[in-house]
Amino acid sequence: MEKSIETMWKEGFLNSNALIAPKINDIYNQKSIHIIDKFQKMFLFNIWGIIIGSSLLFIASYFAGAVLAGSIVLIMMFWVAYTAYQELKSLEKIDKGQSSYTFLKAFKDWISKSIDRYGKMYSAVYPVLILVFYFGIWFSDMFAHKREIVAGSSNDLVLGLHIPTTIIVIIMAVLMSIFSKAIHRKDVKTIYGGILKKLDLALAEMEELRGE
Q: What is the pTM of this model?
């Protein structure tokens, strides 16, 4: 009885000696490389987005009279961009010479570990950014007139800060720190959701062929 196309496809994927194996494996190799190449391009694009965005924000802070806050944000976001670049370089160390299935599994494992590392980093980055933005805007030259109005109409001031507002901002910063991992996972899903879906589908297809 002649083998079905599905059986031949499966044998070609599992058995490198099968006649159809080179073509089948080449298809999966190309699919794997395409997925990771697209991810790397988007990842690099986002790194440049962080660098350019934080630089523009620093320029804006200069004209708003909040250079110190702008400098802190710039340094912190450059640190995030540098960390992201190092993550990207570590991705390049994954051996592309291994099977497409092993290659994609290693890639998925890299993503999981990267998300975990970033989640921990953002537990500090998110709250610091919130506090820096708040203090930076409040003490900026642009906000000087508003500070005078608040000072003249409220007794809830300590070191020039409006206590109720400051407490709310601090609570927000703490909550952002607590939920940083969940927020980052949501961000990753939003930005890279399409690629991650293709990755899961490709792995599911390969695992089906492997009989797992």
A: 0.72
